[in-house]
Amino acid sequence: QVHVVESGGGSVQSGGSLRLSCAASGFFTRYYAIGWFRQAPGGEREGVSCIGATDGSTFYADSVKGRFTVSRDNAKNLAYLQMNWLKPEDTAVYYCAANTMRTRCPADGGARHEYDYWGQGTQVTVSS
User: Fold this and answer.
1) What DSSP element (H or E) covers 84?
2) Which residues contact 26 (CB under 8 A, 6 or more apart)?
3) Distance between the two ends of the chain, CA-based, in angstroms?
4) Calpha distance 12→127 (Å, rounded)
5) Phi/psi-derived region of residue 56, left when phi > 0, alpha when psi is between -120 and 50, beta in every other case
6) CA distance 115 to 57
7) Helices H, strands E: what count in the chain?
8) Using one digit for the tens of pLDDT, what is the confidence trace for 18-53?
9) Which tens digits make up the pLDDT trace of 47-78?
């Protein structure tokens, strides 16, 4: 069993920064790819970023490339999403998820159904 908890959300003005954290506990979590997703009100849950377990593989959605950086600390079972130059369109609930079937981050970040353990989400609100 894997337990995932996100934290670090909040409200910022356009151009600001936030760092989300993802704590993944359970057996072998350091061997799983970790994905970040977001869901805006009335929208679909979309993939934002992904990071492989130990190989450094990453994925970023086009909408966040150059602004968001994903990282992880396997010794602490933590993953992070550093979000800079935030825009109002980044407003969403952000979710962290573990992909227990993959150690590498897929080139396309992986589909939602590939991630089998999800956190409860953390709200990010960016005002103009």
Assistant:
1) none
2) 1, 2, 3, 117
3) 41
4) 6
5) left
6) 16
7) 0, 11
8) 999 999 888 777 889 999 999 999 999 999 999 999
9) 999 999 999 999 999 999 999 999 999 999 99
